[in-house]
Here is the input.
Amino acid sequence: MNRIFTIAILSLAVGLTACSDFLVERHSTSYEGKSMIATKTALESSILGIHRQIASSGFKTGSFCEYLAPGSGLAIWGNTGALTNPQEKWISLHKFTRFSRHPDNLTTFQSFYRTIYLCNHLLDLLVNSPVDENYVEEIKGEIYFLRAMAYFYLVRLYGDVTLNLTAPSSSDDETMYKPRENFWTVYCQIVKDLNLAEEKLRSFKRMVSVAGGNASGRVCNYAATACRSLVYLTIGTLLEHPDDNFWVGRTPDFTEIGISSPEDAFRLALADAENVIENGPFELCPDYRQLFRWIEPEDWQLKERIWAMPRSPESKDAGSGLTLWALPRCYNGTENVDNFGRCRPDRWFFQKWCETYGGVKGSGTSNSNIYVTCADPRMDVNLIYGSFMGQKKVEDCYPASSRLSSTSAFTLKSFGIPFYKKYYDPTFNNSDGNADLYVMRLAEVYLIAAEATANLHFTGANQYGKTAMDYVNVILARARRSVDGSPSREPADWKTGDFADKDALLTAIFWERCFEMPFEHHEYFDTHRMGAKWIVENISKPKNIFLYLKEQEDFTSGGKEYMGYRSYLYGKTFRYDEDWTLVRKGLICGYPYDEIVYNPCLEETSTDPLRGQNPTEVFWR
Here is the structure.
């Protein structure tokens, strides 16, 4: 870790004072003292502080919303035309990545390592805690979970990263400075930590009785199992596409965790997912709408929640960040929101959703190639489109029955793209909001089971006699029922004959993940684990076709030329790369420049992937 990071973590004597807001009895603690391990209440405050820290790693701020989600190819940074100006920090997102000196790249990197430091430091201190040993072991389980997940995000973003399992005692501690570690070694450590977490974490019932339940963001033992299933699935998809993924000329070794092939990883992913579904304490919410209703107290206690980042408007942190990033200005009469929906679902993603589940195309001359409605009830829960109530009037929004009067940049950026609606709650009024972020919920576990089953069996059944389609159909049935009156006709159940081969089924499951969980911070990681060739065929090529439809072109009105959607947000002649060797360069972010400069174990010009920048074969600059 670099000296900038050193200063950051050693100055964290602010400790957990802010985090004690979660407790009735408030403790001021310091990471340099014994008070944080002295009592059960202090331990709860300490672990809540780490939860708060990982929540600030970008989940509810621009780090993931503004500077990562658009890198999936499914979202857009809609506040300005800056995406088309020479500033690399936005242009790089159209290469599916963030470059080495991207300012938010370093912020994300440091923030996750700060979480890891706090985890390691608390583990070290717990050796001397006077609290009952069994209680301490429960806290350890939560620490292992949070450390594992911090590394899971880091390794997916940067590939090889430094692996620290103890906290440095000072800036002179030699453990402060290490080279990067092979990404497969990091994955193995993640699994080891999740194994310990599963063993030590509280049961769901005890977590509720001691920590107040999942509304506080706390996790139980089955959360470790569920998250481990996603880790195994990720490893499997990486190994499935070795030539077009983010390493070149290297042979990953996962044998330490029982994985010698993609099939091994998929079997482990399926076993964990089945365990959670069959034996875990979680339940699917019967109505999809309630997941994002944010009205009744029970909306924050749903048993579909496996791991959530809780609201915290009382401390003025990022509690309403997602709402601010997503909503249009003055939505439903709220005060002015200057963000104008900075992170938005792009037009092509809207098109793909409608195309998949019963959409209807426009009938006007300016929208005959685009869809204007979708029969999937989840779209109305997740997105604002067509029109919406503003401060005092109804505002038109893409897609409209005719071309929006985008005769100004303001109109295009404000109304020329759909918005995310799911994080709006009635208490929101420009600064405070109460919407939580689901990092993992049970619906995702069903989709993990579906994907693992498809990889292992395709049209066959697993040990429970279920096919991949069976798992997906549970989610689709819930979607159809999430309406008033008779169930919707879409999304219709999947049948075996719907898919020509395994690749077609896996691609359909990918899109179902996107439609079930849009803007829950999965898009970037899902696209990138699928490999460069998959991205070219499923995003680059079809999206290039869409961007050159007449509806996205510049146009003339009243004798004056106006910029269209493509020119304004992508560039007049922009095209996504269709050469998979170029797309491969964006599968991991550039390693943060400051880390390379200040860490004496790293050198920018080194060709060793563990001691320098990512190799040029897999790094877009």
Q: What stands out?
A: Residues 133-158 form the longest helix (26 residues). Residues 191 and 524 are 22 Å apart (CA to CA).
